[in-house]
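Side project, low priority. Logging it here so it doesn't get lost.
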Amino acid sequence: MSNTVSTAPDALGQALLAYQHGHLSATLAVHSSVADEEVLPAAYFFRSLWEMPEMERTALEECRGRVLDLGAGAGCHALELQQRGFTVKAVDISVGAVEVMQERGVHEVACHDIFDPALAAGEKFDTILMLMNGVGLTGTLAGLERFLEHAKTLLAPGGQILATSSDISYLYEDEDGALVFDLNGPYYGEVEYTMHYAHQTGAAFHWIFTDPALLQDYAEAAGYAVEFLEEDDQQQYLVRLTLS
């Protein structure tokens, strides 16, 4: 789930490998710059179709053609798409996640940063899939802008990006419901995370949660048509971007 190459321990990958090899209670501790420590069971990355949120199931229904699954984790989406007859390339920056996906039977797996020029190896994709708040893989607003340009080199004519994100402005509400931001600081949706598993601490990484209006502005400025396919009551949404 990180977005930059690191020599630090692969905490996410080690937790996924532990679960894959029978340690079903393997759990990550997740620290962020905006919230208290959260506990993330490795099992979450292994969920079946019917354990997935409705928004993810919708995204899978909307896939077409050759699929590039970015930030693929333990491969739950790639495996489901394979079962439906899709050809999927599943990519994650975590070496452990890649190993898990290979063990689980994902046919085509690669370890890449999402900005890696070798990501596509000259291939074009009909669908780029970015689930589990997958817009966050771009890291920052500057990273989002950069990725939207980079994606043009990955998409086939008529190709689409299917991505989820959420608006976390609710974290900045005061008691009266008014939003309190540092207007001179970075965008409120830019968050820094660190993951811990066992005695290993992964490298800190940036993750971005984009409010829908801002994402639309950036995507349209980059030449994409924007279609919001689904929203939920937790301010999460699924968006389709196509080159217009």
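Brief comment: Residues 71 and 206 are 14 Å apart (CA to CA).
Revisit when time allows.
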